[in-house]
Amino acid sequence: MRFGHFDDDRREYVIHRPDTPLPWINYLGTEAYFGIISNTAGGYSFYRDARLRRLTRYRYNNAPFDLGGRYLYLRTADGEFWSPTWQPTQTELDDYECRHGLSYTRIGSRYRGIRAETLYFVPLGETLEVWRLKLTNEQQSAVELSVFSSIEFCLWDAQDDATNFQRNFSTGQVEVADGVIYHKTEYRERRDHFAYFACSEPLEGFDTARESFLGPYRSWDRPVVVQQGESTGSIAHGWQPHGSHHVKVTLQPGETREIGFVLGYWENPRDAKFDPPGSQTVDKRLVRPVIERWLRQECVDEGFAALGRRWDELLGGLQVDTPDGDTNRMVNIWNAYQNMVTFNMSRSTSFYESGIGRGMGFRDSNQDLLGFVHMIPERARERILDIAATQLPTGGAYHQYQPLTKRGNNDIGSGFNDDPLWLILGVAAYIKESGDWSILEEPVPYDNQPGSEESLYGHLQRSLRYTLERLGPHGLPLIGRADWNDCLNLNCFSDTPGEAFQTTENASGGVAESVFIAGQFVLAARELAGIALCLGRPAQEYLDAAEKMAGTIAEHGWDGAWFRRAYDFRGNVIGSASNDEGQIFIEPQGMCVMGGVGVEDGTAVTALASVRERLATPHGIILQQPAYSSYRLELGEISSYPPGYKENGGIFCHTNPWLMIAEAIVGNGDGAFDYYKRINPSAREALSEVHRCEPYVYAQMIAGRDAPTHGEAKNSWLTGTAAWNYAAITQWILGIRPELEGLRLAPVLPSGWPGFTAVRRFRGATYHITVERGGSRSLLVDGAPIDGDVLPAAPAGTEVTVTLTL
């Protein structure tokens, strides 16, 4: 069952009805100011950091599920009112349409002969969002309408805002000047920053106190101000700061009017001394021209057009034309778009992430680079240096850091022993794409401490040493708190019934080992060796370490038909045929093969055959089998999930592309593409009543075959699935793969494909690629044959014609 359709020409997903199985969201903003917005205008906005600079409130896990947002109300002179975005009044509209586009959303509806369409977007280079409401009277007579806007301000720190009521009910401050509502509540210390909410039309009234707008014991579906048709002019003093404008408009038959709203964040320069210390007014001199500009419709039109041009440029980095429409749609539009969002957000804020508990992930952000680096390499460079600065002197890493402060998150801490190796893979991806070797000489501190600077290359070396200095009884890397699977906590143990202990990497006896990290180490060591060779630096020690670890995997990580997963605190094997449950796990099968382990001796092919037999389902590859049927202390959180969900036998989509890449490495194009299609959102659109999540972006998880809801997705948008699937399809199946020495063209296609074409920008040059079957293999660059499959980097600004015959 479908709830909408793709409009590929306009790069939009069009939702036909508001009652989607779950709120289907989109993101506003690409730089510093961001927001999430659902298909019924739910969501919130923030500046840079969803926890520390939250502009508006949102209520997660509520009823209805999507509560709080950018709401508008329309009211006729006879007292009937409705929301043109369906929420929050849920009036049965005559028609409804939501168009989620690239960094914008447009929601339109018709009711009682009044057509309303609202465009929401964040202009490039600005810290504000624009709402453009377009009203058309389709009746045969004139109509008088009242328009009410509504947002609820958050008191900046979203966690404190949601918990510290004894303080916050006394701190709310607003100011209204020239029709603009300014939210100026300070958090802890005095700052000259504020939010504002403005309207393009003369106001009939306004409200800034939530309870005055809603009325006692009322919710957003029937605000007393809207019901009565008159604002109160309330000014919030403590309690709940709110923003609402009241505009009256008369529309003649067939007439269309536009009303603009601007919600934004402003921070005056620290050296701007406009007001005496302690002043209770907001200085508006710098922000007023910005507000006035974006209330002009011609400026809105120009800004929206500029946003579209920006996405033309970003998506132009790679465009493909293959025999499969779902592949084209995802590669050319939606997967690339999701890569931008995951780069900006990491795992911090979505419909499933509150923006409070998680910041930017060390592991996550490095992987997100894989799908983003070709779009804006300079931003990827900046992100790498930010990530590396949170690394610890040991070579370990804070698992997460806050985007505003760029400091490690002590609440989450460190000890996830896979984290440091991801930095090597992220930096390698950046250099391969950009050819920028200078980044390796950049001085970067440890733990953001001045005076601790070392070159980025030194950070990479320390990342590798971190693993080598933490090997367990079998010579495999210690898992620490966890590896990629945060829920596989193998240093849990109990010597006394009813007592449990969690060791850390430094605790006595924390000896659980990870085969997954071993495979990751082989991959990272070989990547660092390649970088070293290009720099003319010693590389043999890295190659030797990789070879030795591969031998250790063969000796202690191979179970006869697949790679084992780990060894627990007491030395018991995990992911073995000898186990009663959890016999085979997906992660080491993918990571070990990506590292090249078992490729030459054929064990890789055996492991992949075991995956297909034991783990593959129509909805994707499940994480392990059999699922754990009861809680096991020695395994940690993984066994706390019911069978078939999340890490306990769920389809953790993030790991599926590793198997696609592994299949491509062993030359199985049909197998690789088969796995790609199983979780491709576009290909799953017809299953929307089962899948439930958005059909235009990847989800983190799909319920596995042990679950009663097999095929149901959760945790959409912010997932490493996006970057890894993009890498799997573009770099391994289509085979257009950046390398240190140039652009490799080595496709591993499904047998039924006659070929494909692509346009790829690489280091400033544009490659026009044609891949076709037939005849003997040849690779022509501008008509001249070349040996091998690596295209030399062409001068920036040149156009290169490439033809590969398979």
TrEMBL record:
<feature type="domain" description="Glycoside hydrolase family 65 C-terminal">
    <location>
        <begin position="741"/>
        <end position="787"/>
    </location>
</feature>
<dbReference type="Pfam" id="PF17167">
    <property type="entry name" value="Glyco_hydro_94"/>
</dbReference>
<protein>
    <submittedName>
        <fullName>Glycosyl transferase</fullName>
    </submittedName>
</protein>
<dbReference type="Pfam" id="PF03633">
    <property type="entry name" value="Glyco_hydro_65C"/>
</dbReference>
<feature type="domain" description="Glycosyl hydrolase 94 supersandwich">
    <location>
        <begin position="11"/>
        <end position="272"/>
    </location>
</feature>
<dbReference type="InterPro" id="IPR010383">
    <property type="entry name" value="Glyco_hydrolase_94_b-supersand"/>
</dbReference>
<dbReference type="Pfam" id="PF06165">
    <property type="entry name" value="GH94_b-supersand"/>
</dbReference>
<dbReference type="GO" id="GO:0016740">
    <property type="term" value="F:transferase activity"/>
</dbReference>
<keyword id="KW-0328">Glycosyltransferase</keyword>
<dbReference type="InterPro" id="IPR005194">
    <property type="entry name" value="Glyco_hydro_65_C"/>
</dbReference>
<keyword id="KW-0808">Transferase</keyword>
<feature type="domain" description="Glycosyl hydrolase 94 catalytic">
    <location>
        <begin position="311"/>
        <end position="735"/>
    </location>
</feature>
<dbReference type="InterPro" id="IPR011013">
    <property type="entry name" value="Gal_mutarotase_sf_dom"/>
</dbReference>
<dbReference type="InterPro" id="IPR033432">
    <property type="entry name" value="GH94_catalytic"/>
</dbReference>
<dbReference type="InterPro" id="IPR052047">
    <property type="entry name" value="GH94_Enzymes"/>
</dbReference>
<dbReference type="InterPro" id="IPR008928">
    <property type="entry name" value="6-hairpin_glycosidase_sf"/>
</dbReference>
<dbReference type="InterPro" id="IPR037018">
    <property type="entry name" value="GH65_N"/>
</dbReference>
<dbReference type="InterPro" id="IPR012341">
    <property type="entry name" value="6hp_glycosidase-like_sf"/>
</dbReference>
